[in-house]
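S.,

Sequence below, as promised.
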Amino acid sequence: MKNGSRFPYTLLLTILLIAGVSFPTSASRVYHVQPGNTVFQIALWHGVSLENLTAHNQLTQADYIIPGQVLYIPEPVTRSDEKLYTVENNESLFMIAQKFQTNLHWLRQRNKLYSDQLFTGQWLKVPIATQSGGSGASYVWNIPDLMARHPGKVFLQGVTNRKQVALTFDDGPDTKYTPEILDLLGQYGVKATFFLKGTNLSGQEWVVTRIVREGHLVANHSYSHPDFRKLTTEQIVAEVQKTEGLLEKITGRKTALLRPPYGEMTMAGLDRLVNAGYAMINWSVDSKDWRADQADQILANVLSQVKPGSIILMHSAGGNGQDLTPTVEVLPELITSLQALGYEIVPLTDILPVEAYKPGA
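The prediction came back faster than expected:
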């Protein structure tokens, strides 16, 4: 989608937000109505109820929608034993059943499917994998326990009431998207924080040097991007220390901010890393840019959740073949929309009581 075609939507969205019109806080994608669509059909495609979709968009006439109309699609409500999965190109229901070690009946029942036909980008409820060892225990989000154990060292949100937010970019550097993002941040005079992955540093040191030279913060995002909750404490520490050493060689500074891959951390791992001088920084607003195929989706994801002190998660590099073009395309609109709403975009250290680098670095 070209920038010009998105402008009226972005302008209208910003005006309505300034005017105090509330948008659904749980919306995480937008859908542009196509000729022949019905509300029932759109709800079915995205795995949400007709009532929820109607209420979410304040539709007074559920059967009246027009081509080109923007609908906000809320994430379907999930049970404790299931999560959302986005259907990939050419995937069948059978393939997804195999991927998540379940059966077709479970998928049909949980998703209220009337046929096995799927479309790329469709949401499906799939089972959450149980922990190894045969215990059958479901995943438990342990961040509240980590925050209680290490107050002032684990953050999801900035500690400020001022209208300030922080843009953070994971998984860089690369030589395509990271420089394009830096170009735009420079154009708009915005400083951000880049959580960098160790395996991406070799041969791309100049990008890291540029990040620092242009006034942005560099932080640690592990070496190989594993799930820390599946590693031993020694493996976790090694992942962080290896990237810290590589970044120190490039920048002359030792990182003090860590974002673990997927936001996951063990208690013992955090104990060691806090003792080594790290603070763990997750996020409060997930742009979901890594799975968005349109800039409008990213914009809606952020603006529907933002508040003073928000830490916004985005990406400056992707996996093999991953297209982050929507991230680059949305950045000017996101920056100007946030500023129009009165937000100042600042480095993480402006909204958190932490330092970006260890003493003496």
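Residues 17 and 266 are 39 Å apart (CA to CA).

Coffee later?
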